[in-house]
Design brief:
The chain is mainly α. Helices cover about 55% and strands about 0% of the residues. It has helices spanning about 10-15, 30-40, 45-75, 95-105.
Length: about 110
């Protein structure tokens, strides 16, 4: 089954097709005819379905943006202030990645 996304509030199936899937398809002729009657037959109903789908996608997009802002706010709440360095301060510099760059570099080196 298609479960709802916590960030968007919609199931991916619903955003893609505009409806939720059925557990079992209708197997009897009466149910098949009823399902055919539920589908849009005229242009106005089809346009309403398209507008509804576009609205749902826009709502999901807005919910994702709101979720992104909320997550960034929560992550930044625990972040410490940026360090303030002055000229002449002693700092540790990690050069672990520099060895790999040196070994993968071109053969135009003067020193090892």
């Amino acid at each position: 089954m298609s479960t709802k996304n916590a960030s968007t509030g919609y199931a991916p199936f619903h955003l893609h097709l505009g409806r939720t899937p059925r557990l079992l398809p209708p197997l009897t002729p009466e149910h098949v005819n009823k399902v055919r009657e539920d589908f849009p037959n005229d242009v106005a109903t089809a346009l309403e379905a398209i507008i509804s789908l576009k609205t749902d996608v826009a709502d999901a997009h807005d919910a994702l943006l709101a979720s992104r802002v909320a997550q960034a706010t929560a992550a930044n709440a625990h972040r410490s202030a940026d360090p303030c360095f002055e000229i002449g301060d002693f700092v540790y510099l990690s050069t672990a990645h520099r060895r790999r760059e040196y070994l993968n570099g071109k053969g135009k080196r003067v020193a090892k």
